[in-house]
Records
---
Amino acid sequence: MEGYNFHEIEAKWQKKWEDEKRFVVKNHEEGKQNEYVLIEFPYPSGKGLHVGHLRSYTALDAVARKKRLEGKNVLFPMGCDAFGLEAERTAIREHKLPQEIVARNIATFKEQLKQIGLSFDWSREINTCDPSYYKWTQWLFIQFFKHGLAEKRETLVNFCKNCGVLANEEVEGGKCCQCHEEVIQKSKSQWILKMTEYADRLAEDLKLTKYQQHIKTSQINWIGKSEGVQVKFQIKQGGSFEIFTTCIETIYGITFMVLAPESEIVKSLKDKIENLDEVNEYIKQAAKKSEFERQELVKEKSGCLLKGITAINPANGMEVPVYIGDFVLAGYGTGAVMAVPAHDQRDYDFAKQRKIPMIQVIEGDIRNGALEKQDYLGTGAKLINSGEFSGLTVEEAKQKITEKLISLGVAKKQVNFKMRDWVFSRQRYWGEPIPMIYCDHCGWVPVPEDQLPVVLPNVDSYEPTKDGESPLSAIESFVKTTCPKCGAPARRETDTMPGWAGSSWYFMRYCDPKNDKEFASMDSLRAWLPVNIYNGGNEHTTRHLLYARFWNKFFYDIGISPVLEPFETRISQGIILGSNGVKMSKSLGNVVDPREVVKEYGADSLRLWESFIGDYSEMVNWNDNGVKACFKFLNRVWAMQDFLVDGDKFSSELSYAFNYAIKKVTNDINDIKFNTAVSALMTLCNEIYKNRKINREEFKTLLILLNPFAPHITEELWEINKFSPEFKNVSWPNYDEKALVKNVISLPVQINGKMRGTIEVSPSAGQEEILNLVKSDSVISKYLTEPIKKVILVPNRIINIIC
RNA sequence: GCUGGUGUGGCGGAAUGGUAGACGCAAGGGACUUAAAAUCCCUCGGAGGCAACUCCGUGCCGGUUCGAGUCCGGCCACCAGCACCA
């Protein structure tokens, strides 16, 4: 027997799979059920992949390979999300064009992936920055526009001096999530997608999916639905404004109101405010503050009284002062709040600071702080100091007060969402141009479909501009055009789309990647959607998942997607840290390059260790010795050929071990428990070594079970031992439940709940028989005392004797 | 602060409420070898004991149960996400 020469074997099989197009899949395959296995496509960064990145690829490759062996027609595609800031920033740093950087990175990425023998269908590869792809991203944007879900709106936006305008979702702790620069607020006319119109359904339809509960919860929290009442307050000096509250029962406790400094209401009150200079100064300061600073001041809530302005509480006619304060957000609710210091801690702090009186309206103790809704809801607490509503429970009052205000015509029930509309414009070069044209006569007009894509022009200078305008705006030849409607001279939109655009629908394009008539045909989408198993990073379980679900839901509404929810299940991998427990990074010198590992131990050993390293969803530390251990294991499998004997069914010696392994590996792969699947294979291998003998049928079974994790060595062993049929035609083994029943089991015995030993017994033995065996066991019996009060026998598991 | 998650040997980790530590790493001992590597065998949670064996042990404190790593209540620590959401 020759040694295990993984270099030769792996190169041979990778070439063979590619030559015979083993993993290229058709949308329809006679007699086969379709299965869609998807991994988030990456942005291929210039640093190349490290072993941590491969975890999800090797894991889902195992899933895909197993499903193929089970006779499924499996779509397992891969592509690149190449638009976005990272490519642009690398390009700027290296003084190259993003186009060049991306092409170079993709080549490295593919080379690395191909070395480990992943079974992607590369014929369906896509790339979001390819015009043949973003043509359809643009087309889809136009559908949003045509259905009134995209519009240009003046909004306060997060502005980063390096990266331009950011979506709320891209601001992390008041800083830019890309470059960590402080984010400031700026007013700008932006394209937005009205995602809030789908907020309710995005939360509601989670019940159609099988996501893990924590993923559903994080989506629901992000959407942040709250039901309440919107109430109109008259300003004594003229005018009015509206507030939103979820605690209408506390309306008699209002002692002041607070408006967001940026709100329109404040502007409209300008000529009535007596301390206008002071107010203007406050507004100026607030605008300069980043969200981060605002939050830093959490203990010291800032605000400024609007002198000469009072609001009238519609419930009791009481006049209260009005403040502006930057803890009130213009972007949420109506940008104005009613303040009830007795029942809201934030208002309580604000009132204490400024010696504003409090009115307690719900019974309880407010000496040490506000009695908030979480304190009184559901406790049966009653209202006080609330006019005709005093004496009602909170729950009754909520309803009665709402009814009264509605009948007075000053209120309506309202549902608010924390989730905001999606700011979809970027003043950046490296993105899909937004396919819109502005005409002085016709307003915004979409680029006609037959003129798509609006190609991103090649330019010499694409750096972000200092004033925050798109670099494209400086290119006259791009900007100047004519109106598609009236033919008059017109100007193109120069903003581009955010990085999230192309990734919001890529999983649909895989179904029909070459289609130049449609973004994807309904037939192909019906064939594959919903994605059966979708794997991605934890960091994407809110944003990306929500965006993709939103796009799909809209597509469903306009009849271009066949499903309400695009992803059936969602799983995410834990990251692999360096061996020192810190995130792998070049500067820390703890990066492990898969190419080095492959060179030393081979792709199969690497793949096996990626699966065995630990629980898939947990964070783990890399350990070089693990690869060595897996290499050792594969060598043991290879050397097993020495034990090979004839035989076309499981031998009595190994029947139990094999049936158990089949069951365990099958279930564990289904349950995303790759580490225990591999350990079951190792256990099986140990059993075979103890037996010193393995027949052909048994060896074949072992190879099939191991194949999803170590595809090269298993196909090679299959071939050199001339097993039949050809490996590509074999099917996943079934186990025999009957073979898992043992004649004699070792039954644990507890006396008074303490483990005292085991007895050998038939699984069908009754209580009497077992008790007699226990009594005759010299070790266990000495713990027994008469009388026996109670016996708990769990057949096949345990007996507990109470005496 | 809120939400979610996690806490088990020297390490990575196993355990449908039923023998805690599967599988593997590291370590120690042995066999083979001139030697090393590779391979194979043995030991390997802690304390005590010559031994048979005994007691303790899954972050901490309680509870439910014949029986708790697992369920419940209350803490502590760490990780991640969110950030004044009215």
Note: The mean pLDDT of chain A is 87.
---
Amino acid sequence: MRVASRHPFPHPSIRRLPLYLRFLKQLRDAGSQKISCTRIARELDLDSTQVRKDLALTGIVGRPRIGYVLTDLVQAIEKFLGWDQRALAFLAGVGNLGRAIIGYEDFRRCGLDIVAAFDIDAGKIGGEVFGRRVYHPAEMPALTPKLGVSVGVITVPAVAAQEVADVMVKSGISGIWNFSPIRLELPPRVRVENALLTSSLAVLSVDLKRESPEAAPPFQRPPARRSR
Amino acid sequence: MRVASRHPFPHPSIRRLPLYLRFLKQLRDAGSQKISCTRIARELDLDSTQVRKDLALTGIVGRPRIGYVLTDLVQAIEKFLGWDQRALAFLAGVGNLGRAIIGYEDFRRCGLDIVAAFDIDAGKIGGEVFGRRVYHPAEMPALTPKLGVSVGVITVPAVAAQEVADVMVKSGISGIWNFSPIRLELPPRVRVENALLTSSLAVLSVDLKRESPEAAPPFQRPPARRSR
DNA sequence: TAGATTGTTAATCGATTAACAATC
DNA sequence: TAGATTGTTAATCGATTAACAATC
């Protein structure tokens, strides 16, 4: 029984909202006023009932025969996601991935404002990455409450991930966006989301393997061996 | 009815396999010989039946009371994912994210070997990124069959994503790992996996919003208004 | 009005979890 | 042997899809 991780909102739906948001903003910026679930579903290759239920999560109300008012819908999604408000963030691990995330402007539009970075490399400390100062992790506990930072982004190598997570927890951070491929042990008050790049690659790999069966298929499930 | 996208293997299970793999390799390298689902489940905070079913996908067979032979299990997972074989890849879009992915050694261990990169920036073409030559996309159709490349990684800005996907398709690539936040239109023979970073961020954002209800909760579902 | 679309309930589908015999 | 663990079937849970009245 896992009562702790009960979700009032279905994760699959939440994951689709940014996809809608991007599409809808594009339409809005192109001058459209209204949009129907039918059309969203057609353009994004989804089921229209699913789109309707997903959008309903945000509290938006549409009108039969007409659809939704685009500007309202965009706002409703942004508000539901909390992307209308800024969350200040620290990023730990100024390697290639860390640099890429700091430099990726899109996350700003998702309410995530990375205000400083951390690394243990003396050559990086004191420098700047895309305008953000790089500090030693030891400074995090003092800086976090001072700046009002609530989110930690982890882009350090796997071996260092738990350690830096511990520092973040000690600093009073409320949520961690974890790009390292390990499970972090965290107190229940700290929310975590794992951006598992290798999981995504795994799905593609298995999919490709099915398409090009160079060897015999690896499963060939043998018939059941037991009866009860 | 969506017959086309029937999966013989459950995606959630496939996504968990890399997590097991990393943990198991670590144990193996530390000198362990055997491992039970019970322990894997405990350490990774999962259900042990779920772990058992996930591992069963790979065809591995364990022994009651003992568990699985670690080296066999690691091999079975790698083989199932196709990570025991190399897939050559092209990466399009040598921005921050592209550079990070080229430089991320872990993907090599997942069988993905990025052999060259593409960009339309004249300042980048002809140069190298982590030892990989950068070409103009126009050269892709000739290079792909010549080098035997089967995967395309897309890290270009959203506006250019469909265009570069079209070039990849024309080049004869079989799978696309898409980091751009749009749905690509592709012929059915081309497999695609979307690495949706903003979806991951959305889940964290909603989770954090629940924890810190600064404003009134945004849903407050009104009572049903209709009867049938 | 006619017909497209919303909102919602019901049915289906698929994944997770529980239960348990077989096994070592 | 006793008891922990596997492999598998059954039950539960949750998400997707179908059906349809209400609405404009």
Note: Residues 11-29 of chain A form the longest helix (19 residues).
